[in-house]
From TrEMBL:
CDD domains tied to this protein: M23_peptidase (cd12797)
Keywords associated with the record: Signal
Name of protein: M23ase beta-sheet core domain-containing protein
Superkingdom of the source species: Bacteria
Biological source species: Candidatus Giovannonibacteria bacterium RIFCSPLOWO2_01_FULL_45_34
Signal peptide: 1-20
Length: 310
Protein backbone atom coordinates (compact mmCIF):
# COMPACT_ATOMS: atom_id res chain seq x y z
CA UNK A 1 0.00 0.00 0.00
CA UNK A 2 2.82 2.39 0.92
CA UNK A 3 4.55 1.63 -2.40
CA UNK A 4 1.39 2.46 -4.38
CA UNK A 5 0.95 5.75 -2.51
CA UNK A 6 4.58 6.74 -3.22
CA UNK A 7 4.26 5.96 -6.92
CA UNK A 8 0.99 7.89 -7.22
CA UNK A 9 2.53 10.85 -5.38
CA UNK A 10 5.57 10.94 -7.67
CA UNK A 11 3.39 10.52 -10.74
CA UNK A 12 1.11 13.38 -9.66
CA UNK A 13 3.89 15.70 -8.45
CA UNK A 14 6.12 15.33 -11.50
CA UNK A 15 3.25 15.55 -13.98
CA UNK A 16 1.89 18.70 -12.35
CA UNK A 17 5.29 20.35 -12.76
CA UNK A 18 5.70 19.28 -16.38
CA UNK A 19 6.30 21.88 -19.02
CA UNK A 20 3.24 22.06 -21.27
CA UNK A 21 5.55 22.19 -24.29
CA UNK A 22 7.57 19.11 -23.36
CA UNK A 23 6.08 15.75 -24.32
CA UNK A 24 7.25 12.17 -23.96
CA UNK A 25 5.80 9.29 -25.96
CA UNK A 26 6.36 5.56 -25.42
CA UNK A 27 4.39 2.30 -25.59
CA UNK A 28 1.93 1.54 -22.80
CA UNK A 29 3.28 -1.99 -22.39
CA UNK A 30 6.36 -4.05 -23.21
CA UNK A 31 7.30 -7.72 -22.96
CA UNK A 32 10.32 -9.14 -21.18
CA UNK A 33 13.43 -8.83 -23.34
CA UNK A 34 12.13 -5.86 -25.32
CA UNK A 35 13.48 -2.38 -25.98
CA UNK A 36 11.34 0.60 -24.98
CA UNK A 37 11.85 3.80 -26.95
CA UNK A 38 10.96 7.06 -25.22
CA UNK A 39 10.62 9.89 -27.74
CA UNK A 40 10.93 13.32 -26.11
CA UNK A 41 9.79 16.48 -27.88
CA UNK A 42 10.84 19.78 -26.34
CA UNK A 43 11.17 23.06 -28.29
CA UNK A 44 13.59 24.29 -25.62
CA UNK A 45 15.94 21.39 -26.35
CA UNK A 46 17.81 19.16 -23.94
CA UNK A 47 19.39 17.72 -22.05
CA UNK A 48 16.82 15.24 -20.74
CA UNK A 49 17.22 12.38 -18.30
CA UNK A 50 14.88 9.41 -18.12
CA UNK A 51 14.46 7.43 -14.90
CA UNK A 52 13.11 3.88 -15.00
CA UNK A 53 11.74 2.53 -11.70
CA UNK A 54 11.33 -1.29 -11.91
CA UNK A 55 8.81 -3.47 -10.11
CA UNK A 56 9.78 -3.54 -6.44
CA UNK A 57 10.67 0.14 -6.21
CA UNK A 58 10.90 1.94 -3.78
CA UNK A 59 11.51 -1.00 -1.42
CA UNK A 60 14.39 -1.83 -3.77
CA UNK A 61 15.90 1.62 -4.36
CA UNK A 62 17.91 0.71 -7.47
CA UNK A 63 16.65 2.33 -10.64
CA UNK A 64 18.03 3.10 -14.10
CA UNK A 65 18.96 6.62 -15.17
CA UNK A 66 19.29 7.14 -18.93
CA UNK A 67 20.60 10.16 -20.82
CA UNK A 68 18.49 10.88 -23.90
CA UNK A 69 20.20 11.09 -27.30
CA UNK A 70 19.72 14.17 -29.48
CA UNK A 71 17.99 13.23 -32.76
CA UNK A 72 17.25 16.71 -34.11
CA UNK A 73 16.83 20.27 -32.81
CA UNK A 74 13.80 19.57 -30.60
CA UNK A 75 13.67 15.76 -30.38
CA UNK A 76 15.56 13.33 -28.18
CA UNK A 77 15.40 9.55 -27.84
CA UNK A 78 15.95 7.48 -24.70
CA UNK A 79 16.28 3.68 -24.76
CA UNK A 80 15.11 1.56 -21.83
CA UNK A 81 15.99 -2.16 -21.62
CA UNK A 82 13.43 -4.63 -20.28
CA UNK A 83 15.40 -7.67 -19.15
CA UNK A 84 14.43 -11.24 -19.96
CA UNK A 85 14.05 -11.82 -16.22
CA UNK A 86 12.28 -8.51 -15.49
CA UNK A 87 9.41 -8.90 -13.03
CA UNK A 88 6.01 -8.32 -14.69
CA UNK A 89 3.89 -5.46 -13.40
CA UNK A 90 3.32 -1.72 -13.56
CA UNK A 91 6.42 0.50 -13.49
CA UNK A 92 7.09 4.21 -13.57
CA UNK A 93 9.10 6.12 -16.19
CA UNK A 94 9.93 9.77 -15.48
CA UNK A 95 11.41 12.29 -17.91
CA UNK A 96 13.26 15.32 -16.55
CA UNK A 97 14.50 18.46 -18.28
CA UNK A 98 16.48 21.20 -16.54
CA UNK A 99 13.44 22.49 -14.68
CA UNK A 100 10.46 20.23 -15.38
CA UNK A 101 9.36 16.61 -15.14
CA UNK A 102 6.99 14.30 -16.99
CA UNK A 103 5.88 10.84 -15.82
CA UNK A 104 4.36 7.85 -17.58
CA UNK A 105 3.46 4.31 -16.56
CA UNK A 106 4.57 1.16 -18.36
CA UNK A 107 3.20 -2.35 -17.96
CA UNK A 108 5.78 -5.13 -18.23
CA UNK A 109 4.28 -8.36 -19.53
CA UNK A 110 5.55 -11.93 -19.53
CA UNK A 111 7.13 -12.99 -22.81
CA UNK A 112 6.30 -16.68 -22.47
CA UNK A 113 9.83 -17.91 -23.13
CA UNK A 114 10.26 -21.61 -23.94
CA UNK A 115 11.48 -23.93 -21.19
CA UNK A 116 14.32 -26.39 -21.69
CA UNK A 117 13.56 -30.08 -21.17
CA UNK A 118 17.12 -30.82 -20.08
CA UNK A 119 19.08 -30.04 -16.91
CA UNK A 120 22.67 -28.89 -17.25
CA UNK A 121 25.19 -29.88 -14.59
CA UNK A 122 27.56 -27.05 -13.67
CA UNK A 123 30.99 -28.12 -12.47
CA UNK A 124 32.64 -26.41 -9.53
CA UNK A 125 35.63 -24.17 -10.16
CA UNK A 126 38.41 -23.93 -7.60
CA UNK A 127 41.62 -22.03 -7.02
CA UNK A 128 43.01 -20.00 -9.91
CA UNK A 129 40.21 -21.05 -12.28
CA UNK A 130 37.62 -19.66 -9.88
CA UNK A 131 39.59 -16.44 -9.44
CA UNK A 132 39.92 -16.06 -13.22
CA UNK A 133 36.20 -16.72 -13.73
CA UNK A 134 35.19 -14.11 -11.16
CA UNK A 135 37.67 -11.61 -12.56
CA UNK A 136 36.27 -12.06 -16.07
CA UNK A 137 32.70 -11.47 -14.85
CA UNK A 138 33.82 -8.29 -13.10
CA UNK A 139 35.56 -7.13 -16.28
CA UNK A 140 32.30 -7.56 -18.21
CA UNK A 141 30.36 -5.58 -15.60
CA UNK A 142 32.90 -2.78 -15.79
CA UNK A 143 32.61 -2.60 -19.59
CA UNK A 144 28.81 -2.43 -19.45
CA UNK A 145 28.88 0.48 -17.00
CA UNK A 146 30.84 2.59 -19.50
CA UNK A 147 28.70 5.02 -21.45
CA UNK A 148 30.29 6.37 -24.59
CA UNK A 149 28.68 9.74 -25.31
CA UNK A 150 28.83 9.14 -29.06
CA UNK A 151 26.12 7.50 -31.11
CA UNK A 152 27.20 5.02 -33.77
CA UNK A 153 23.74 3.51 -34.33
CA UNK A 154 21.14 4.85 -36.73
CA UNK A 155 17.94 6.54 -35.62
CA UNK A 156 15.79 3.64 -36.84
CA UNK A 157 17.90 1.20 -34.76
CA UNK A 158 18.16 -1.23 -37.67
CA UNK A 159 21.36 -3.28 -37.61
CA UNK A 160 22.84 -5.75 -40.06
CA UNK A 161 23.25 -9.48 -39.39
CA UNK A 162 26.33 -11.05 -37.76
CA UNK A 163 26.13 -14.03 -40.16
CA UNK A 164 25.14 -14.26 -43.80
CA UNK A 165 22.82 -17.17 -43.09
CA UNK A 166 20.84 -16.83 -39.87
CA UNK A 167 19.22 -19.82 -38.14
CA UNK A 168 18.56 -20.09 -34.41
CA UNK A 169 19.57 -23.20 -32.48
CA UNK A 170 18.69 -21.88 -28.99
CA UNK A 171 16.42 -18.81 -28.67
CA UNK A 172 16.83 -15.72 -26.54
CA UNK A 173 15.15 -15.92 -23.15
CA UNK A 174 14.86 -19.71 -23.06
CA UNK A 175 14.63 -20.89 -19.46
CA UNK A 176 17.45 -23.31 -18.71
CA UNK A 177 17.68 -25.63 -15.71
CA UNK A 178 21.02 -25.68 -13.92
CA UNK A 179 22.29 -27.86 -11.08
CA UNK A 180 25.53 -28.02 -9.10
CA UNK A 181 26.71 -29.79 -5.95
CA UNK A 182 27.30 -26.47 -4.20
CA UNK A 183 24.22 -24.43 -5.16
CA UNK A 184 21.62 -27.10 -5.94
CA UNK A 185 19.06 -26.38 -8.67
CA UNK A 186 18.13 -23.05 -10.24
CA UNK A 187 16.65 -21.64 -13.45
CA UNK A 188 18.18 -18.94 -15.62
CA UNK A 189 17.24 -17.25 -18.88
CA UNK A 190 19.40 -17.56 -21.97
CA UNK A 191 20.62 -13.98 -22.36
CA UNK A 192 21.58 -14.31 -26.02
CA UNK A 193 20.59 -16.27 -29.11
CA UNK A 194 22.63 -19.22 -30.37
CA UNK A 195 23.01 -19.19 -34.15
CA UNK A 196 23.91 -22.14 -36.33
CA UNK A 197 27.46 -21.66 -37.62
CA UNK A 198 30.05 -24.20 -38.70
CA UNK A 199 33.60 -23.76 -37.48
CA UNK A 200 35.31 -21.06 -39.55
CA UNK A 201 32.17 -19.16 -40.59
CA UNK A 202 32.86 -15.38 -40.97
CA UNK A 203 31.29 -13.21 -38.26
CA UNK A 204 30.44 -9.59 -39.13
CA UNK A 205 30.07 -6.39 -37.11
CA UNK A 206 26.40 -5.44 -37.04
CA UNK A 207 27.14 -1.70 -36.94
CA UNK A 208 29.95 0.78 -36.55
CA UNK A 209 31.49 0.91 -33.09
CA UNK A 210 34.56 0.58 -30.91
CA UNK A 211 35.92 -2.85 -29.94
CA UNK A 212 35.94 -2.86 -26.14
CA UNK A 213 37.01 -6.47 -25.67
CA UNK A 214 38.75 -9.02 -27.88
CA UNK A 215 40.14 -11.83 -25.77
CA UNK A 216 39.49 -15.34 -24.44
CA UNK A 217 37.36 -16.16 -21.38
CA UNK A 218 36.71 -19.45 -19.64
CA UNK A 219 32.97 -19.78 -20.34
CA UNK A 220 32.52 -17.51 -23.35
CA UNK A 221 35.64 -18.70 -25.15
CA UNK A 222 37.11 -16.23 -27.62
CA UNK A 223 34.95 -13.15 -27.41
CA UNK A 224 34.41 -9.79 -29.11
CA UNK A 225 32.38 -6.93 -27.62
CA UNK A 226 31.57 -3.83 -29.68
CA UNK A 227 30.46 -0.55 -28.10
CA UNK A 228 27.89 1.21 -30.30
CA UNK A 229 27.52 4.19 -27.99
CA UNK A 230 25.16 5.32 -25.22
CA UNK A 231 25.27 2.02 -23.35
CA UNK A 232 24.52 -0.27 -26.32
CA UNK A 233 26.85 -3.26 -26.90
CA UNK A 234 26.83 -6.25 -29.25
CA UNK A 235 28.56 -9.45 -28.08
CA UNK A 236 29.94 -12.44 -29.98
CA UNK A 237 31.00 -15.64 -28.10
CA UNK A 238 32.73 -19.01 -28.76
CA UNK A 239 34.80 -17.69 -31.67
CA UNK A 240 37.58 -19.66 -33.34
CA UNK A 241 39.84 -16.78 -34.36
CA UNK A 242 39.69 -13.01 -33.88
CA UNK A 243 40.50 -10.42 -36.51
CA UNK A 244 40.12 -7.29 -34.36
CA UNK A 245 41.85 -5.82 -31.32
CA UNK A 246 40.66 -3.74 -28.39
CA UNK A 247 40.33 -0.10 -29.40
CA UNK A 248 39.72 -0.82 -33.09
CA UNK A 249 36.93 1.10 -34.80
CA UNK A 250 34.92 -1.27 -36.98
CA UNK A 251 32.25 -0.54 -39.56
CA UNK A 252 29.00 -2.28 -40.37
CA UNK A 253 29.73 -5.48 -42.29
CA UNK A 254 33.42 -5.77 -41.33
CA UNK A 255 34.65 -9.30 -40.61
CA UNK A 256 35.59 -9.30 -36.92
CA UNK A 257 36.15 -13.04 -36.33
CA UNK A 258 35.39 -16.59 -37.40
CA UNK A 259 32.94 -18.76 -35.47
CA UNK A 260 34.06 -21.78 -33.51
CA UNK A 261 33.48 -23.92 -30.42
CA UNK A 262 35.66 -22.33 -27.76
CA UNK A 263 34.91 -21.92 -24.06
CA UNK A 264 31.96 -23.87 -22.65
CA UNK A 265 30.29 -24.37 -26.04
CA UNK A 266 28.85 -27.87 -26.47
CA UNK A 267 28.95 -27.65 -30.27
CA UNK A 268 29.96 -25.17 -32.99
CA UNK A 269 27.75 -22.06 -32.97
CA UNK A 270 27.75 -18.29 -32.51
CA UNK A 271 26.30 -16.94 -29.28
CA UNK A 272 24.98 -13.48 -30.26
CA UNK A 273 23.97 -11.13 -27.46
CA UNK A 274 22.95 -7.52 -26.87
CA UNK A 275 23.42 -5.45 -23.72
CA UNK A 276 21.88 -2.06 -23.03
CA UNK A 277 23.19 -0.45 -19.83
CA UNK A 278 24.24 -3.94 -18.77
CA UNK A 279 20.80 -5.52 -19.26
CA UNK A 280 20.48 -8.33 -21.81
CA UNK A 281 17.70 -7.75 -24.36
CA UNK A 282 16.55 -9.69 -27.40
CA UNK A 283 18.66 -9.33 -30.56
CA UNK A 284 15.41 -9.20 -32.52
CA UNK A 285 14.76 -5.67 -31.29
CA UNK A 286 17.29 -4.65 -33.93
CA UNK A 287 16.76 -7.06 -36.82
CA UNK A 288 14.17 -9.57 -38.08
CA UNK A 289 13.97 -12.78 -36.05
CA UNK A 290 15.40 -15.65 -38.12
CA UNK A 291 13.86 -19.13 -38.33
CA UNK A 292 14.82 -22.02 -36.08
CA UNK A 293 17.51 -24.33 -37.38
CA UNK A 294 16.18 -27.66 -38.58
CA UNK A 295 18.57 -30.56 -38.38
CA UNK A 296 18.41 -32.40 -41.66
CA UNK A 297 17.79 -36.10 -41.31
CA UNK A 298 20.70 -38.17 -42.51
CA UNK A 299 19.52 -41.27 -44.39
CA UNK A 300 20.96 -44.56 -43.12
CA UNK A 301 23.77 -46.00 -45.24
CA UNK A 302 22.66 -48.45 -47.90
CA UNK A 303 23.23 -52.06 -47.00
CA UNK A 304 25.95 -53.68 -49.05
CA UNK A 305 25.08 -56.94 -50.68
CA UNK A 306 27.25 -59.83 -49.68
CA UNK A 307 29.10 -61.61 -52.41
CA UNK A 308 27.15 -64.43 -53.85
CA UNK A 309 23.80 -62.98 -52.84
CA UNK A 310 21.15 -62.90 -55.51
Amino acid sequence: MIKIVRILFLLFFVSQNADALMKADMPKSAKQGSLVRVLITDPEGGPHDVHFYPVGWPEKPDHLEVHAVQINADTQLALIPIGADAKPGLVLVSVFSRTFGYSLTLEIKEAGFPVSRDTQFVGELKGKLLDDFRGQKEELKKIFTERTEKRYWREDLKFSQPLKNMEVTSPFGKIRHKVSKKDGKWDINHFGADLHADVGTPVYAVEKGVVRLATKFLAEGKIVIIDHGYGLFSLYFHLLRLKVYEGDIVNRGDVIAWSGQTGAAIGPHLHFEWRLYGTAISPWNFMPEPPMFEQKAVPPPAKKKRRGAK
